[in-house]
Amino acid sequence: MSKAMDFFARQEQARRNTGSLVFYFVIAGFGIVAMVCLIVAAAIAIISGFLPNDGQYWIVRDFNKIMAVTAFVTGTVTLGLSLARINELRRGGGDSLASMLGGTLIPVDTTDPTYRKILNVTEETAIAAGIPSPPVYILGHEEGINAFAAGYRPQTAVIGVTKGAAELLDRDELQGVIAHELSHVLYGDMRLNIRLIGLIHGVTVMGVFGRRIFLRSLGYGGLVSRRVRDGRSFFPGVLGGLALMVVGAAGTFIGSLLKASICRQREYLADASAVQFTRNPSAIIGALKKMGGWSIGSQLESSRAEEASHLFIGQARSTIFRRLFATHPTLEQRIRRLDPAWDGAFPVVDEETRRSLAMASRREVPGLLALGAHVQPQADSSETGERCGGDGSEPEAVSREVGSLEAACLDYARTLMASLPPWLLQTTRNPEHARSLVFALLLSSDDAVRARQLDGLLLLTDIRCHDQVVEFFEAGDIHVPALRQLLLDMAVPALRRMPRETYAVFKEAVTMLINADRRVDLTEWMIHRVLIRRIAPFFDANRDVPMKVVGFAPVIRYVEVLLSCLAHLGRRIEDPDKRRAATQHSFDKGLELLDISGIQLLPHEDCTLVALDSALNKLELLTPPWKKQLLEASAAVIMADGIVAVRQGIVLRGVAEGLDLPMPPLLPGQTVHTTI
């Protein structure tokens, strides 16, 4: 199978699809406005026939004004309701959509074997893809085999899995489904999906109003007024409600066409990404075949399923005009894309299949991966010069890894997770223990600095937290660099569950621990950056970060800060002259890839944590092609001496995180970029 589309190309495609969506929405809006104006004009013509000449004169004289007001009000209501719905879904993140569909959050420390299987698969897949492990919701009343990803940003994304999928899919098939959904998270499809829901809401809301008016005119849906009982508002209400219902039906028609036209091709791409990631075509193929063989298929019962039908991996609702309005290609088409030799037969999936799979799930050890225990973690090679990511020699290879779904990274994540002692694995799944674990990761190896850190921690927290941190630090398992990065990734879901008041103390404690030695090293900065970006959206007001800056000219000063910080935070060289020369050489290497002028290496004292964070917050606004150039330039700075230590590779992930670019783990001593 050919390699999946480049991340930056997919991001640009999503941006173009958003532009197309707005264009079609404007056309749909004009259509809705025109229909309402026609209905109002017809009503005026009918009413004027019963009026005396004076009344007809006033209506004719003010007809244009009436039409203008009607068009303005209709357009404003349509646009306003669309924007309000988009903002509501954006601020609520994926959680609001999952709750709307009847989902229940699966606790990260659950011991239920079926739920544990889902969380294990989601966790290892997300870590391998370089994104936060999303919360998982179970749609416990849905027997169809289906799943979805929802959210406005990767940091607030959630995965939803139906009861049917949880019980009828084996582990490999479930991994194929999760990989499919995470590809939507990676490539920016979720934001488009949210906007699609909002815009369709705007063009269909007239039908909702009309239905309410119609029912109330007939005496349903509330108290029956005297005017309804004596018939004075019966006919106007019924006719007005029917008219708006016709407008709503037209909006629903347009909305269904929009969803169908935008969503179908993305499903093919997500299927291909799932195959590439798992290196197991039978995983996603098996899941699709079970959808076809199960009596319910992928159908959902929720009354809100139609509104969010384009979010799911399978067709959530059947339609009369299937080919015209289907949000997904047919199962036959999708399977043949992946397996041209398929004979067209679906397996028989019944209750006996459900029972046998449930028993298999219960035989799986909760909390551990089915990879085998006692896998030894890699040794600390932070200063040995082993190369990370690709062959470590070309900055362009780094940008190719962004947003990639690579089987090598999945194998690596599985191996590392299987190497964790059980006590440490459980630590990452408890909010209180995960918080202490992060503090332990930030403790200094210098006795004097560590003593100051622990004293400050005791002032901010309590003796129980203090003692836990000391215990974790002395355990030794957490000090392997590869495991340190993994533990940080695994702790994020539990940290998101800490009480809001605890989060404020947590942030202050992290900053105190980092600044205790009055300098910030590469690893400390990366931990701070990843934690804040991955956890903050769950406690602070969600903010949209539109990619709208084209070119480096508007942000050239921030480019200067980023490259200077990376150059100064490189390898430590004792000789001042050699250190200055090496720093300038690294900076120049990055500058060569940007083809810009007017910037120079900043002094070391200007390259602070605050300056670097501020620069990345502004550079995050760049559109994907410019982010790609900037990441390659950052990699060139780090790779300027021809070698990349593990700690430098970790910081490069921090830069990618700051630019909102998902980067898989950089693997010491092995190639992560493979072609399948």
TrEMBL record:
Pfam families: Peptidase_M48 (PF01435). The chain crosses the membrane at residues 21-46, 66-84, 234-258. Residues 117-339 form the Peptidase M48 domain. One of its GO terms (molecular function) is metal ion binding. GO terms for biological process: proteolysis. InterPro entries: HtpX_protease, Peptidase_M48. This is Peptidase M48 domain-containing protein.
